[in-house]
Amino acid sequence: MLTVASDIDVLARFGRALADPIRCRILLALSRAPVYPADLADALGVSRTRLSNHLACLRDCGLVVTVPDGRRTRYELADERLGHALDQLRAVVVAVEEDKTCPDAATEGCC
Length: 111
Description:
This protein is mainly alpha-helical. It has one domain: Arc Repressor Mutant, subunit A (Orthogonal Bundle), CATH 1.10.10.10. Helices cover 57% and strands 11% of the residues. 14% of the residues are buried. It holds the Pfam family HTH_5.
C-alpha cells in the first residue's frame, strides 16, 4: 500500500539529495534531458561505481527513476516539476544571497 510522505519527510529527502555536489550535478543534468549512466559518468568526470551509488541514493529519495530502453537503462527525473523546482530554488537562493557562500559542513558546520 502506498503511503503519502509528510511534508517534512519530503523536504528532508530533497535536502539529503542536494547535500552532495555530485548529486546536485546529476539532478541538474537530468533536468535538461534523460541520460544513460555511462554517458553521465563521462560528462561528470566520475567513476561509474561512484555515479551508481549517487543514482541509488536519488532513486531511494524518490527523485529519479529508471526507464528500460532495450538492453540499456536510462535515468530521468521522477517528475518534470522537479526540474522547475530546481530552477526556482537556484533563482531564489541567488537572488537572496548572491554574495554569500555556505561553509563546508564537514569543516565549519552549516546553518
